[in-house]
Amino acid sequence: MKLIKSIFITAALATSAMASISVFAQSMADMTVGEIRKIDKDASKITIKHGEIKNLEMPPMTMVFTVKEPALLDKVKPGDKVKFAVVREDGKMIVTDIQSTQ
Ligand SMILES: [Cu+2]
Fold first, then answer.
1. β-strand 81-89 against 61-67: which pairing, if any?
2. Tens digit of each residue's pLDDT (9 = 90 or more) over 64-102
3. How far is the CA of 74 from the centre of ligand 1 (A)?
4. Which terminus of the chain has a smaller tally of CB atoms within 10 A, N or C?
5. What is the pLDDT of residues 44-62, one digit of tens each?
6. CA nearest 30: which of 83, 72, 102, 69?
7. Closest of 30, 66, 69 to residue 48, by C-alpha
8. Rounded to a whole number, what is the distance in angstroms from the first to the last CA of the chain?
9. Structural domains of the chain, with CATH
10. Kind of pairing, strands 81-89 and 31-40?
């Protein structure tokens, strides 16, 4: 019984490790490059001059995004070159992650 239990636990650990790797790979693949133009923390909005957003099939442009968490805005400032993740939710573009690349 003890052996079966440890095999089960090993399998569960392996599965969860694989799941985190694939989430990681997914989030890396979906990062878009850009440069911060403006930050409006009260409104949770950020203006980014962005490169092509492959997962949303959007060409490069400067536009306003809503951020998922206002705390994301503490990590960056206008002028920063960044990598960010964006998803479409209810017709709105939501930035789910952002990090300075300089
Ligand atoms: Cu755009």
1. unpaired
2. 999 999 999 999 999 999 999 999 998 889 999 999 997
3. 22
4. N
5. 999 999 999 999 999 999 9
6. 83
7. 66
8. 54
9. 31-100 (2.40.50.320)
10. antiparallel
